[in-house]
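TICKET: design request
STATUS: open
ATTACHED STRUCTURE:
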């Protein structure tokens, strides 16, 4: 029986010659392996690339990278579509007080 996709798994990775651990749900490890294969990189190589572009937590950066990767492959979208961020959200509709 396979383990649940939501179960957190921890793996050791080397970033810039230093060992660190990365904790992700199983579904993200599976996706990371798939994308690394598509890009002809090792998983560690892909994680290193993600690490170089991140501004926050590495686990979060990996999740955002994978979300963006698969979102850009959605039918009807092109790779130059704007990534969803705060600037593309509609402005708030008041503060809820009358």
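STATUS: resolved
RESOLUTION: sequence designed for all positions
ATTACHED SEQUENCE:
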């Amino acid at each position: 029986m396979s383990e649940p996709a939501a179960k957190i798994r921890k793996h050791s990775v080397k970033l810039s010659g230093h060992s660190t651990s990365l904790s992700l749900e199983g579904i993200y490890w599976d996706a990371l392996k798939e994308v690394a294969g598509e890009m002809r990189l090792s998983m560690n190589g892909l994680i290193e690339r993600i690490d170089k572009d991140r501004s926050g937590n590495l686990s979060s950066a990996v999740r955002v990278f994978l979300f963006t990767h698969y979102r850009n492959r959605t039918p009807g979208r092109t790779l130059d579509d704007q990534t969803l961020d705060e600037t593309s959200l509609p402005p708030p509709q008041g503060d809820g007080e009358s």
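CLOSING REMARK: The radius of gyration is 17 Å. Strands lie at 8-15, 18-25.
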